[in-house]
Amino acid sequence: MDTINSFEICPKFEIQTYPAITFDGQNYIVVWSDNNFGGSYYYVAAARVTPGGVVLDTGVCISNGTGSSEYRAKIAYDGDRCLVVWPKSSGPVYGRFINSQCQPEGSVFTIASAPAGGPNIAFDGMNYLVVWFAGTYPTLELYGHLVSTQGVLVGSPISIALGNECHRWADVEFDGTNYLVVWQTGLNNAGQKIYGQFIGTDGSLLGGNFMICDNTYQERWWPAIAAADTNLIAVWGQGYSSACNIWGNVDVTVTGIQEDVGLTIRDAGLTLTVAPNPFSKQTQIRFMIHDSRYVEPELRNSNFEMRKYTLIIYDATGRLVKYSLLPTTYCLLPTAVSWEGTDQANRRLRSGVYFVTLEAGDYSATEKVLLIR
């Protein structure tokens, strides 16, 4: 990384702080707390930045811009527009949608009543999950609520971590099947632990809370979470004053599909690629066979016969959503098929992780693809 190429996103005179970011399939959307709109108060602003680093907006105030300050906004994309959530100082947690032009849509709405703070957000392809802590220090409890893409609160609030142990500063990630929420528990300067809780897309708690860090007495702060194909990583700060380091844990496994590819793509002499990836409207699935020695003898009668390859698409739970028999020439010719993010009945699939598998005899190759609506 060349820091000489760093650039200002908001070059205004007053103070801007606490940024957060997402990608909407075309541009990055950055949100932050901005001191330019309300005298001594900070309000949530947003701007688009292209993948090439061109800043398209000067900072649009997306809240009502009144009352007490708004800090630590978070943002997620649902395939159509973004939902931004933020807390007022000692006040409620609010939300508002912004479109692909970085313009607010609809009104600001309340997600959690005061006193509440530290919200975070993730999207599962159908709804958002917003998490936050409620109460006053040192008695802070952790809650969540599903929010639809129309801004409607779905069901009842979810009680994630209750009691007087001071649960706060949660992060949340969708692993393709379920949500994982991570947070810190413990009083200031008294040692904290990092905990996790899986939550289903219907808002149900899956199992109980579990500890992610070790059980030693340490100061631990600001956990964060991200998901890969097979497991999740949780990271946090740990230590005291000048001796604080970053720790992590990768022992939490993803709850969705884990693909057993059997004989590998290289063994089979196959090439399988999916691009663009992620995609929102259409992607190209390209494949070809490189070496005729890897085709089973009973499947080939001549060097130019039409063979059948099987293309299967699964969702993150392992459910088959599309199945095709694909004819291709036996010689070294690449083949491509389009996929518009639909199932076998040509119905639009929701945003999420999918697995594209190409099978040829006993051989298979799999590519993970992300559909963003």
TrEMBL record:
UniProt-listed Gene3D superfamilies: 2.60.40.4070
Name of the molecule in the record: Secretion system C-terminal sorting domain-containing protein
Species whose genome carries this gene: candidate division WOR_3 bacterium SM23_60
